[in-house]
Amino acid sequence: MALQSPSQTDSDELNKLKRKRGCLRGAVTKQITKIESDILKPDITVEDLEESIELLTERGEELKLIDSQIESLIQVDQIEVEFESIEEYKEKITRTRFKTRKLIQKISKGSNANNSWQDSNISLNSSSQNETQTKEKERIKLPKLTIPKFYGEISEWLNFWNAFKSAIHENDNVCKIDKFNYLRSFLGGSAFSLIDGLELTAEHYDHSIDILKENSVIKKF
């Protein structure tokens, strides 16, 4: 059997490497196409993108190794054409990885912002719960305060109003509807009749105070 010359051996090896590279370039192109398609999906996840980038990187490294082997076997006059071919695929891989990394960063920032919003919302809810608990405590304590009941007598108005104003009217932890409830509970006789027809609302609470102050029974106050 005739022995192959060194040049023939190199030629066979070169052809073998080029065929292998052709298959690998096909795999790279397929992976890039998949990534470009995935990028357009609204429900794509960071994990999916990172997995695709990892596969593309591995293919790129394999391609780089074969390109290096081919460069060592080609003729000088083929270097320019070979270089352009190699750079074309390097550029494709680099561009795809860059776009995908940018998208991963964007998705991650959106996720962090959402988590921050959720943490903030939890904090607000916690503050709201604490405020509600404080108000509940105030509601429990208020009935224990000594506030004289007012029946419409002029001589009793000042004592009643000073006590009610200090304990309830100026208490910022009590909402106006609750204040209105307390006011009604401390009124009797003609004083209660003045506001009896008012609906239990925050606006009517202010109106009821004005009525009591401006009524002819207590007009001097």
Automatic annotation (TrEMBL):
Residues 118-132 have a biased composition (Polar residues). Residues 118-137 are annotated as: Disordered. InterPro entries: DUF1759. This is DUF1758 domain-containing protein. The lineage of its organism: Eukaryota, Metazoa, Ecdysozoa, Arthropoda, Chelicerata.
